[in-house]
C-alpha cells in the first residue's frame, strides 16, 4: 500500500520531477527512474511494468510519462486511483503538457502530489480539494488578520489619544506657568500605591516641580472629551477622525519635552489609574435654540495588580442641577450616597485588575439651557455676484478652555480649495469629503471669540449646513474629582496626595 | 553504510544552474517581495538538489525568508529545509544553526492558517533530528485539538513519525495513549487512518484492541481505515501464534463484502496469507475471480492473474475448482490478459475439468471465426496453442477438437495456421486412432491452405500418414489437382504468362525484400532464407487463390517457392513408394510413378527457365533430382529410409520434447522441497533468537525494503579481496587502492589513500572522471593528510545502462614547500558489463522477434585457439554469463558445424541476444561469426568487446 515515488519524465527518459514518499537514496531513485524508459514496451494495452523489486504504474500524458513507483505487493486498485488523481492534477498546475511547462510548475506539482499522497499512503481527496489545500485560503487566517488589524487600529487610536493628551498637558503646563486657576487639573497625575510611602513621589515630584504649582488637588486623571454637534449626528465619526488627524499634526509640530515623554510612558506602569470623562452631545438649530443637550460622564478605574485592588475612592463634586449618579451594581451604594466614597460592596473582593478600565460610576446632566453651551458658532453665507462669501464666528463661554477645536463646514462640490480671506487659527480643506475644517488649537482668555471668512463659487446657503464642531476640554461640567484613595488592607500604605 | 546516506525526497530537473547564481538568489531573498522571494527559493532548492551546497544561503534564508508571510514562500521554505543538509557530515549531529528554524516552525504550528499548520506538520514527518523536534513537540500535540481535519491528520502522522525515530519514545513518551484518545474521538477518515497506522506501527496491542472492540462496525468504517485494518491483521497473524486467528478471519470475511474494491482485493490477499485452509483460499480465489470479471482495467486484470498464479503454486487443488471462472476473463479483448488466462488455465488442467475447458476453448475459437476481430488471428493462435497443450496432456480430448481446428488450416493468419498444422502433425502421430479421419479431413481441406509453411507441413503429413490404398491415391490426386495442368510454363504460353506474371511480380519483390534480412532459425542456424517467407506470401497468395481456388500449390510455386516444390517432390516420391507397396496392380503404380516424375521434371524446367526472376536454388534442385533418381531406381534401403526413418525421427523428436518438459517439471518440483540443512523455526524460541527465518520471510516488509534498495547482501570476504584494484604505484608519494562494489544502479568506490611521504599533504583531492553511461554523484572534497597516514574516501557513481564504463582520474595535492599542485595519475577502473547481465530464458519466437526488431548489431569474427565447436560454445557461455537457448539435443553429434542462440537480461531489464555460428575448417581451426544484438548500443558494443577479449580462450 505504499507509493514510493511519484514522478514525471519525458518520453526520452529525462526526469522532470520526482517526489519520494519513502526514504530512499538518491542513487536508488535515479536508478529506478533511469531504468523505466527501457522497460516501457510499446503497443501494450496495460500501463504497468514490474521488475524484480518494484512496480511502475504509469500513464502517458502527451510527450510525458506520469508514473508512480510502488512495491510489488502494493494494491493495484488503489494505485490506479492515485495515478488517475495525479493525472488530473498535472494539467491543473502545469501550463502546458510538455517538458517546459512541467519544469516551470515543478514546485506546484510537488505540493499537489504531497496533498494527494500523504507519506506514501493514498488520500481520499478530489482535485477540487487538492486545489483548495494548495491555495491555502483560510477563513481563520482572514479572521485572525482582521482581529489583528483592529487591534493595531485600536492601539493607534490609543496612541493618538495619548498624543492629544500629552499635547493638552503640555499646553496645560504652559497655562499653569501663566498661573491659571487650579481648576484645570493636568491629565496624568497618577497616584502611586507602591509600598514605598510618600517617598514614591520622586518621579512625580519632578513633574510637579516642572509645573511649579501643586495644583493636583485630585489624584485622578480627569479628562473631558466632548463632542458638540450641530446638525445630524452622522458626521460624528468623520469628525472624530479629523480630530485625531489634527492631533497627529500637532504632535509633529511640537517638540515633546523630556517630561512629556515620561508622562506618556509612566501611566502604563501606574498601579492605579482613575479616568473621569464627560461626553457632551449637543444639537443646535440653525436659527438658535437647543434641540438636544446631553452630558454623560463616567468614572473608570484601572488597577494593574491584584494586590492593589482593595481600595476605596473618595470623590467630591459640585452641586449641579440635573446631575444624577448611577453606580456599578458591585459598588456599595450606601457608602456612596452618604460619604461619596466609591468602594466595593464586598470588602473582600478587589476591584477587577488588568489592562481594562472598569467603569464604576456614571452620571448624567440634563436640563441645561443654551447659556451653558461652551461654544457657539454663527455662520453667515451671503451671495455676491458669482461668489458666495461665508463668514463664520465662534464665541466661547469663559467657563472652559477648549482644546483642539475643529469646526467643519460642509461645502458644495468644488474644483479648487476655497479662498480663505481671513482666519483666526488654521484651516484645512478635505477635498474628498468637500469639507472645510477650521481648527483652533486652544481657545482661552486670549481668544474667546474668533472669525473666519472664505469665498466659494456661488452656492446655495443651505449647503454650508450642518456644521459640526468638536473639541476637548480639561475640566468637566460636574467638576467631579477624586480627592483620596484609601487602601483597605494592612501592609499597604497609601501615598495620598491630598492637600498638596 | 548505505543507510548513513541522506535520503532523497525530491528530484527536479534543472539545467540552468551555476554556482554564481547564489549571489543573485541572495540578493532576491534579501530585497524582493513575495513572488521574487518565491522564485529565488525555487532556484535555491533546484541548485541544492543538483549538488551545490550553498553554505551561506542558510543564514539569509533564516533572516529574510522566515519572516515572509507569503504562503507560497513558506511552503518553499519547508522544501528548502527538507533538502538542505541538516547534519554535520563529520559528526552526524544536527548543525547548530538549525536550531534557528525551530522558532519559525513553532510559529507555523500556531499559525491561524490551518494549511500552514498542516504543511509544517507534514514537513516535520520528514525531520529526523531530535534536537530540532524537541521544542516543537508541545505545539504538535496541541494541534491534535485543532478544529480543521487537515491539521489533525498531519499532526497524527507527525506524531507517528517522531515516535518511530530512535529516540522517539523520549520525545513523546505518551504518544500511543494520545493517539489512541484521538482515534476514539476522531471523525475524519484520513485522520483516523493515520492514527490507526501509528498504533499499528508503534503500539500494536492497542491497535488490535481497538480493532477487536470495534469488530462489529468494521464494515462501516471508511475504506482508508479498512485498508489499514486489513494490513494490521496481516501483520498480527504473521507474527503471533495462531490462537485467536478466527476473530481476525471473521473481520476479513466481513470486509470481503466491502463496497471498495481496493479493500476487497486487499482482503483476499490477507486471507491467503492468514490461512491455508481450503475454505479461506477458496474465498480468496473467488474474490479474485469476481474482481477479475468486474474490473475493466487491464492492469488490474493482469495483476489479479498474477495473484491467481501465485495461488496456483501453493493451492493447486483449490484453484482447479475456479478454473471456469478464470476462463471467463477471456472475454477481455486484451491479448496479454488472454495469454495469462490461458497460461493459468493450462496449469490447472485435471482429467475432470479438461473436457469442460476444451469445450470452452472450442467455443472461443468458433467465436473468433464469427467475429473477425483485428486481433482474431492472434487470439486464435493462442487458443490453438492452448488446445494443443491440453491435448498433449490429455490426448483423449483431441478427437473432439482436431476436426474443428483443421478448418483453420486455411486461416489467413499464418501463425495460427502453422500452429494448427503442427498440432495436427503431433496428434496424428500420438493418436493413431484418429489418423484415418484426420487424413481424410486433411485431403478434403488441403486446397484451402494458402501459406507455404503450412503447405509444407501438410504435405509432409500426407506423405507420412497416408497408408491405405485409397488414402494414397486420393492424396496423390489432391496434390495433382492443386498443382493444376502441366506444364507450369511453356514458351507458347507467352500471352497468359504475361497475365499471371503480373500478380506474381510484386510477390517476388516482397519476398526479396523480406529475405534480405538474415533470420535465425529455430535450431540456431543463422540463415539467409531465399525461399519465400511465409509472412510476405500469405496475402498475395490468398489473392491468387481466389483466381484459381483449388490450385494453391501452383500459385505458390509460380511465385518462386522452390522449397515448397522440393517438398512436393518428396511427398510424391513417398506416396509413390507407398503405393507400390499397397497397390496390387503394378500398372497403376507405374502410372502414378510416371505422373510424379512428370511433375518433378516440370518443376525443374520451371526452375531453370527465365520465366521467374530467380532460378531454382541448388538445394531444392538437388533434392528434386534425388527424388527423380529414386523413383527411377528404387531399392529396399532407400525405401526403408523414406518410409520409416522419417517417421521414426519425428517420433523421436516428440519423445525428446516430452522428456524435456517432464524434466523441467521435475526440476521445478525439486526446488520447492526443503533442503536437509534448512533452518527450522520454533515459534517458542523465536523471541530469544533475534531475527528468525520467519521474520525474514515477512514478504511485505522485505518487498518494501527491496523496493527502496535497503537490501545489501554481504558478499563474502574472499570475493571482496578479489575486487581490490591498485590505483597508483607503491613508490608514488600517494598510494591509493580502490574496492569496487557494484550495486544495481550504483557503483561505490571505497578508495584508501595513503600518504607515503614525510610531509603533510594539503588539499588532497581525488578527482574522478567517467566514460560511458556513468555519472559521478557528488563532488570531490579536499582533505589534509598527515605524514604516513591514510584516509578512506568514498565515491558514488551512478549507472544508467548496461555498458562497460571506465573510471579514470588523478589525485591532486599540495605540499608546504612546493608551490604548485602535484598530480598522481590513477590507473583506470573498468566496470565490467558482466556485473549487470544475468542468464535468462525466453521463448524461441520472442527471441526471433527481438532479433528482428533490435537495431544494434555487433558482428565479431571468431578467432580462437579452441579446436572443438562445443568447447568454444561453452567457453563463450561461461565468459559472457549468458544462457544457451538452443536445446542440447540440437547440438548433439559431430558435424563440424555449430549454431546456437544465447540470451541474457540486464538488471535494467534490457535484453542481450547473441548468436554463434561456427564451422570447423579443413585445417581444424574454427571460423565463423558471433553476432550480438540489443536495443541499445551500449550492450552490443560492450558485449562485443568482452567477447573479442575472451574468445581466444586456450590458456584458461
Automatic annotation (TrEMBL), chain A:
Region: Disordered, residue numbers: 169-194
Q: In what residue span(s) does the MHD domain sit?
A: 269-500
Point out the coiled-coil segments of this chain: none
What is the membrane topology here?
A: Peripheral membrane protein
Q: Which CDD domains match?
A: AP_delta-COPI_MHD, Delta_COP_N
Subcellular location per the Swiss-Prot or TrEMBL entry: Cytoplasm; Cytoplasmic vesicle, COPI-coated vesicle membrane; Golgi apparatus membrane
Q: Which residues cross the membrane?
A: none
Q: Which GO terms describe its biological process?
A: endoplasmic reticulum to Golgi vesicle-mediated transport; Golgi localization; protein transport; retrograde vesicle-mediated transport, Golgi to endoplasmic reticulum
Report biased composition (Basic and acidic residues) as residue ranges. 169-178
Q: Where is the composition biased (Polar residues)?
A: 185-194
Name a single GO cellular component: Golgi membrane
Assigned protein family: Belongs to the adaptor complexes medium subunit family. Delta-COP subfamily.
Kindly provide the name given to this protein in its UniProt entry. Answer: Coatomer subunit delta
State the organism named in the record.
Eragrostis curvula (weeping love grass)
Task: Please spell out the taxonomic lineage of the organism that makes this protein.
Answer: Eukaryota, Viridiplantae, Streptophyta, Embryophyta, Tracheophyta
TrEMBL record, chain B:
Name the Gene Ontology biological process terms.
Answer: endoplasmic reticulum to Golgi vesicle-mediated transport; intra-Golgi vesicle-mediated transport; intracellular protein transport
| Record's subcellular location | Cytoplasm; Golgi apparatus membrane; Cytoplasmic vesicle, COPI-coated vesicle membrane
Q: Where is the Clathrin/coatomer adaptor adaptin-like N-terminal domain?
A: 23-479
GO MF annotation list = structural molecule activity
Q: Name one Pfam family in it.
A: Adaptin_N
Tell me, in one coarse class, where this protein mainly resides.
Answer: cytoplasm
SUPFAM superfamilies the UniProt entry points to: ARM repeat
Q: Which residues form the Coatomer beta subunit C-terminal domain?
A: 676-814
What biological function has been recorded for the protein in this entry?
The coatomer is a cytosolic protein complex that binds to dilysine motifs and reversibly associates with Golgi non-clathrin-coated vesicles, which further mediate biosynthetic protein transport from the ER, via the Golgi up to the trans Golgi network. Coatomer complex is required for budding from Golgi membranes, and is essential for the retrograde Golgi-to-ER transport of dilysine-tagged proteins.
Subunit (UniProt):
Oligomeric complex that consists of at least the alpha, beta, beta', gamma, delta, epsilon and zeta subunits.
Q: This protein is called what? A: Coatomer subunit beta
Amino acid at each position: 500500500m505504499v507509493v514510493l515515488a511519484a514522478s514525471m519524465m519525458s518520453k526520452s527518459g529525462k526526469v522532470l520531477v520526482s517526489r519520494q514518499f519513502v526514504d530512499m537514496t538518491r542513487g536508488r531513485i535515479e536508478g529506478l527512474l533511469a531504468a523505466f524508459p527501457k522497460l516501457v514496451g510499446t503497443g501494450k494495452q496495460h500501463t504497468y511494468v514490474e521488475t524484480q523489486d518494484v512496480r511502475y504504474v504509469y500513464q502517458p500524458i502527451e510527450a510525458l510519462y506520469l508514473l508512480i513507483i510502488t512495491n510489488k505487493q502494493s494494491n493495484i486498485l488503489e494505485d490506479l486511483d492515485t495515478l488517475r488523481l495525479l493525472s488530473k492534477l498535472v494539467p491543473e498546475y502545469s501550463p502546458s503538457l510538455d517538458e517546459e511547462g512541467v519544469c516551470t510548475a515543478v514546485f506546484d506539482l510537488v505540493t499537489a502530489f504531497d496533498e494527494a499522497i500523504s507519506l506514501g499512503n493514498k488520500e481520499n481527496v478530489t482535485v477540487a480539494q487538492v486545489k483548495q489545500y494548495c491555495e491555502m485560503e483560510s477563513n481563520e487566517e482572514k479572521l485572525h488578520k482582521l482581529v489583528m488589524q483592529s487591534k493595531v487600529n485600536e492601539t493607534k487610536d490609543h496612541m493618538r489619544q495619548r498624543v492629544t493628551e500629552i499635547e493638552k498637558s503640555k499646553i496645560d503646563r504652559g497655562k499653569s506657568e501663566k498661573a491659571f486657576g487650579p481648576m484645570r487639573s493636568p491629565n496624568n497625575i497618577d497616584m502611586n500605591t507602591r509600598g514605598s510611602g510618600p517617598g514614591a513621589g520622586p518621579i512625580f515630584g519632578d513633574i510637579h516641580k516642572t509645573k511649579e504649582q501643586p495644583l493636583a488637588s485630585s489624584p485622578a486623571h480627569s479628562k473631558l472629551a466632548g463632542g458638540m454637534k450641530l446638525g445630524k449626528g452622522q458626521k460624528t465619526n468623520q469628525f472624530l477622525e479629523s480630530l485625531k488627524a489634527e492631533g497627529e499634526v500637532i504632535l509633529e509640530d511640537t517638540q515633546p519635552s523630556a517630561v512629556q515623554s515620561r508622562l506618556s510612558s509612566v501611566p502604563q506602569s501606574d498601579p492605579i489609574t482613575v479616568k473621569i470623562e464627560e461626553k457632551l452631545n449637543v444639537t443646535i438649530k440653525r436659527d438658535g435654540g437647543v434641540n438636544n443637550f446631553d452630558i454623560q460622564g463616567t468614572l473608570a478605574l484601572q488597577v494593574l495588580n491584584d494586590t492593589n485592588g482593595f481600595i476605596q475612592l473618595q470623590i467630591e463634586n459640585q452641586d449641579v442641577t440635573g446631575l444624577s449618579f448611577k453606580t456599578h451594581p458591585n459598588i456599595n451604594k450606601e457608602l456612596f450616597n452618604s460619604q461619596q466614597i466609591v468602594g466595593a460592596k464586598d470588602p473582600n473582593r478587589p476591584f477587577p485588575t488588568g489592562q481594562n478600565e472598569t467603569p464604576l460610576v456614571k452620571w448624567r446632566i440634563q436640563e441645561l439651557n443654551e447659556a451653558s453651551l461652551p461654544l457657539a458658532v454663527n455662520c453667515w453665507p451671503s451671495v455676491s455676484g458669482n461668489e458666495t462669501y461665508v463668514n463664520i464666528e465662534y464665541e466661547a463661554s469663559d467657563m472652559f478652555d477648549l482644546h483642539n477645536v475643529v469646526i467643519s463646514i460642509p461645502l458644495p462640490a468644488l474644483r479648487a480649495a476655497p479662498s480663505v480671506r481671513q482666519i483666526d487659527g488654521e484651516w484645512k480643506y478635505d477635498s474628498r469629503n468637500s469639507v472645510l475644517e477650521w481648527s483652533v488649537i486652544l481657545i482661552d482668555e486670549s481668544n474667546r471669540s474668533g472669525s473666519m471668512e472664505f469665498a466659494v463659487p456661488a452656492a446655495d446657503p443651505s449647503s454650508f449646513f450642518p456644521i459640526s464642531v468638536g473639541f476637548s476640554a480639561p475640566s468637566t461640567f460636574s467638576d467631579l474629582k477624586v480627592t483620596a484613595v484609601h487602601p483597605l488592607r494592612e501592609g499597604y500604605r497609601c501615598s495620598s496626595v491630598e492637600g498638596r | 553504510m548505505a543507510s548513513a546516506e541522506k535520503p532523497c525526497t525530491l528530484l527536479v530537473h534543472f539545467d540552468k544552474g551555476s554556482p554564481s547564481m547564489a549571489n543573485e538568489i541572495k540578493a532576491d531573498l534579501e530585497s524582493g517581495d513575495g513572488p521574487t522571494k518565491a522564485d529565488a527559493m525555487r532556484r535555491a532548492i533546484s541548485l541544492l538538489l543538483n549538488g551545490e551546497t550553498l553554505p551561506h544561503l542558510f543564514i539569509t534564508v533564516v533572516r529574510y525568508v522566515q519572516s515572509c508571510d507569503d504562503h507560497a514562500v513558506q511552503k518553499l521554505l519547508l522544501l528548502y529545509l527538507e533538502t538542505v543538509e541538516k547534519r554535520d557530515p563529520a559528526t552526524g549531529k544536527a548543525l547548530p544553526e538549525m536550531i534557528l528554524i525551530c522558532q519559525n516552525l513553532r510559529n507555523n504550528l500556531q499559525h491561524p492558517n490551518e494549511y500552514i499548520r498542516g504543511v509544517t506538520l507534514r514537513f516535520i514527518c520528514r525531520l529526523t533530528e531530535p534536537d530540532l523536534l524537541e521544542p516543537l513537540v508541545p505545539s504538535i500535540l496541541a494541534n491534535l485539538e485543532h478544529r480543521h481535519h487537515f491539521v489533525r491528520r498531519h499532526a497524527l502522522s507527525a506524531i507517528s513519525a517522531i515516535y518511530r525515530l530512535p529516540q522517539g519514545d523520549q520525545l513523546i513518551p505518551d504518544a500511543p495513549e494520545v493517539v489512541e484518545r484521538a482515534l476514539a474521538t476522531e471523525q475524519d477518515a484520513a485522520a483516523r487512518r493515520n492514527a490507526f497506522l501509528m498504533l499499528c506501527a508503534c503500539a500494536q496491542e492497542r491497535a488490535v484492541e481497538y480493532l477487536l472492540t470495534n469488530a462489529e462496525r468494521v464494515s462501516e468504517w471508511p475504506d482508508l481505515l479498512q485498508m489499514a485494518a486489513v494490513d494490521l491483521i496481516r501483520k498480527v497473524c504473521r507474527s503471533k501464534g495462531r490462537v485467536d486467528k478466527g476473530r481476525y478471519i471473521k473481520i476479513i470475511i466481513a470486509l470481503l463484502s466491502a463496497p471498495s474494491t481496493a479493500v476487497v482485493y486487499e482482503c483476499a490477499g490477507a486471507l491467503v496469507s492468514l490461512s491455508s485452509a481450503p475454505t479461506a483460499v477458496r474465498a480468496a480465489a473467488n474474490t479474485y475471480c469476481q474482481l477479475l470479471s468486474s474490473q475493466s482495467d487491464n492492469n488490474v486484470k493482469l495483476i489479479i492473474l498474477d495473484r491467481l498464479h501465485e495461488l496456483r503454486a501453493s493451492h493447486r487443488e483449490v484453484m482447479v475448482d475456479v478454473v471456469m471462472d478464470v476462463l471467463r476473463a477471456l472475454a477481455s479483448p486484451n491479448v496479454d490478459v488472454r495469454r495469462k488466462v490461458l497460461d493459468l488455465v493450462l496449469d490447472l488442467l485435471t482429467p475432470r475439468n479438461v473436457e469442460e475447458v476444451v469445450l470452452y476453448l472450442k467455443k472461443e475459437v468458433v467465436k473468433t471465426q464469427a467475429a473477425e476481430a483485428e486481433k482474431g488471428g492472434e487470439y486464435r493462435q493462442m487458443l490453438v496453442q492452448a488446445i494443443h497443450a491440453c491435448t498433449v496432456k490429455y490426448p483423449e480430448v483431441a478427437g473432439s477438437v482436431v476436426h474443428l481446428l483443421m478448418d483453420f488450416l486455411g486461416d489467413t493468419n499464418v501463425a495460427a495456421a502453422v500452429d494448427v498444422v503442427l498440432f495436427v502433425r503431433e496428434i496424428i502421430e500420438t493418436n493413431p486412432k484418429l489418423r484415418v479421419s484426420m487424413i481424410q479431413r486433411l485431403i478434403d481441406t488441403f486446397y484451402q491452405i494458402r501459406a507455404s509453411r503450412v503447405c509444407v507441413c501438410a504435405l509432409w503429413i500426407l506423405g507420412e500418414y497416408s497408408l491405405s490404398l485409397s488414402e494414397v491415391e486420393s492424396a496423390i490426386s489432391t496434390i495433382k489437382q492443386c498443382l493444376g495442368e502441366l506444364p507450369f510454363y511453356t514458351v507458347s504460353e507467352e500471352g497468359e504468362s504475361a497475365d499471371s506474371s503480373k500478380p506474381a511480380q510484386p510477390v517476388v519483390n516482397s519476398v526479396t525484400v523480406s529475405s534480405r534480412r538474415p533470420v535465425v532459425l529455430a535450431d540456431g542456424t543463422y540463415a539467409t532464407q531465399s525461399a519465400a517467407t511465409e509472412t510476405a506470401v500469405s496475402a498475395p497468395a490468398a489473392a491468387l487463390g481466389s483466381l484459381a481456388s483449388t490450385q494453391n500449390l501452383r500459385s505458390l510455386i509460380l511465385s518462386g517457392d522452390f522449397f515448397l516444390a522440393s517438398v512436393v517432390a518428396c511427398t510424391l516420391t513417398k506416396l509413390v513408394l507407398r503405393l507400390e507397396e499397397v497397390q496390387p496392380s503394378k500398372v497403376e503404380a507405374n502410372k502414378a510413378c510416371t505422373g510424379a516424375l512428370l511433375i518433378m521434371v516440370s518443376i525443374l524446367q520451371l526452375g531453370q527457365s527465365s520465366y521467374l526472376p530467380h532460378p531454382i536454388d541448388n538445394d531444392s534442385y538437388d533434392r528434386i533430382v534425388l527424388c527423380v533418381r529414386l523413383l527411377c531406381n528404387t531399392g529396399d534401403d532407400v525405401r526403408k529410409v523414406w518410409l520409416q526413418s522419417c517417421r521414426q525421427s519425428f517420433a523421436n523428436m516428440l519423445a525428446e520434447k516430452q522428456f524435456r518438459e517432464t524434466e523441467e517439471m521435475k526440476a521445478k518440483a525439486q526446488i520447492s522441497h526443503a533442503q536437509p540443512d534448512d533452518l527450522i523455526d520454533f515459534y517458542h524460541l523465536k523471541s530469544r533468537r533475534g531475527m528468525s527465518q520467519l521474520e525474514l520471510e515477512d514478504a511485505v516488509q522485505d518487498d518494501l525494503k527491496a523496493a527502496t534498495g535497503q537490501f545489501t547482501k554481504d558478499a563474502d570476504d574472499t570475493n571482496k579481496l578479489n575486487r581490490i584494484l591498485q590505483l597508483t604505484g607503491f613508490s608514488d608519494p600517494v598510494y591509493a587502492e580502490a574496492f569496487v562494489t557494484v550495486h544495481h544502479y550504483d557503483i561505490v568506490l571505497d578508495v584508501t589513500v595513503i600518504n607515503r611521504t614525510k610531509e603533510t599533504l594539503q588539499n588532497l583531492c581525488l578527482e574522478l572522471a567517467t566514460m560511458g553511461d556513468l555519472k559521478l554523484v557528488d563532488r570531490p572534497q579536499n582533505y589534509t593528510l598527515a605524514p604516513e597516514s591514510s584516509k578512506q574516501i568514498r565515491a558514488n557513481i551512478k549507472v544508467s545502462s548496461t555498458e562497460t564504463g571506465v573510471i579514470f582520474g588523478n589525485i591532486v595535492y599540495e605540499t608546504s614547500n612546493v608551490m604548485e599542485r602535484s598530480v598522481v595519475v590513477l590507473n583506470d577502473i573498468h566496470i565490467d558489463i558482466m556485473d549487470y547481465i544475468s542468464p535468462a530464458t525466453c521463448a524461441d519466437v520472442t527471441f526471433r522477434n527481438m532479433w528482428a526488431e533490435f537495431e544494434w548489431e555487433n558482428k565479431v569474427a571468431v578467432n580462437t585457439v579452441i579446436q572443438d565447436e562445443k568447447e568454444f560454445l561453452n567457453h563463450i557461455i561461461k565468459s559472457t554469463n549468458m544462457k544457451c537457448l538452443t536445446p542440447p539435443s540440437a547440438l548433439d553429434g559431430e558435424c563440424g558445424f555449430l549454431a546456437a542462440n544465447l540470451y541474457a537480461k540486464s538488471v535494467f531489464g534490457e535484453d542481450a541476444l547473441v548468436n554463434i555460428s561456427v564451422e570447423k575448417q579443413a585445417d581444424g581451426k574454427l571460423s565463423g561469426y558471433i553476432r550480438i544484438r540489443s536495443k541499445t548500443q551500449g550492450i552490443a558494443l560492450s558485449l562485443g568487446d568482452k567477447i573479442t577479449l575472451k574468445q581466444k580462450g586456450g590458456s584458461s
